[in-house]
Design a protein that fits this description.
The chain is an alpha/beta fold. The chain is 33% helix and 22% strand. Strands 1-2-4-5-6-9-10-11 form an eight-stranded parallel beta barrel, surrounded by six helices. Strands 7-8 form a two-stranded antiparallel sheet.
């Protein structure tokens, strides 16, 4: 079972920055999860939102600016003054941080237009396929990613919803398992709401990976570990590992 640092050690440091990622490795995270978009010049950049409003406190879309322009923005001060001058990382810079034996989960928010550049980044940094997993909400994008980068593990991100009239959570496990198999993917990355033991066990019985986001509760983490979850994405990797011990 992997402890996966959500956007790096994002409870302690500004999300999706090199400081948050390096801190996650220092806190003994097994893996780090990041989000990526494409810049105007086709580079893969590490940031969650499509705009600069939250992190840089300014107007503008990520896709409308070049990598050089994006790296002029301070994306750390919003967290604390000591993080002033944190910059938006390139994917190459983040790939270079992965310790031997650890993994990087890359959430694709850029669509299929970034896949060839991502493949180029993996080659430039000589990152082994086993060190990277791709995740994304768009099943079509994930299918194309699997076609272009077949050696990488890939999981479909899904969040279940509850029908308050019937008390049932949807989509059902059977439906999701079939969609993942048809798409040729390797597993599911599930939101924690509605993720119960039976669901995890059904996914594992289908020989698929099952990950969960975002868990900062030791009690919830213990329940999911007992169910057989493959990885828990958390904002507090070091703290959660200590509590689980």
């Amino acid at each position: 079972m992997e402890i996966i640092a959500h956007r790096g050690a994002s409870f302690d440091a500004p999300e999706n920055t090199l400081s948050a990622i390096q801190l996650a490795w220092m806190q003994n995270a097994d893996a780090v999860e990041i989000d990526v978009h494409c810049s105007r010049d086709g580079k893969i950049v590490v940031i969650h939102d499509p705009t600069l409003r939250k992190l840089a406190r300014c107007h503008g879309n990520v896709c409308d600016k070049t990598l050089r322009e994006l790296q002029t923005f301070d994306v750390g001060s919003w967290k604390h003054e000591r993080w002033r001058e944190e910059r938006i990382p390139s994917i190459d810079a983040v790939l270079d941080t992965i310790p031997k034996g650890n993994r990087l989960f890359i959430e694709l928010k850029c669509g299929v237009e970034g896949l060839l550049e991502l493949g180029g980044a993996l080659r430039r940094t000589k990152t082994p396929a086993k060190s990277v997993a791709l995740i994304g909400f768009s099943l079509a994008t994930m299918m194309e990613a699997k076609r272009l980068l077949p050696k990488l593990e890939m999981s479909w991100i899904v969040e279940r919803k509850r029908d308050w009239r019937t008390a049932r959570w949807t989509p059902a496990a059977e439906f999701l398992i079939e969609r993942v198999r048809q798409a040729g993917l390797d597993g599911l990355d599930m939101g924690v709401r509605g993720l119960h033991t039976k669901f995890v066990q059904e996914v594992k019985a289908a020989h698929l990976q099952c990950y969960v986001w975002t868990v900062d509760s030791p009690a919830v983490a213990r329940r999911l570990i007992a169910a057989g979850i493959d990885g828990i994405t958390t904002n507090r990797p070091g703290w959660l590992r200590q509590r689980l011990r």
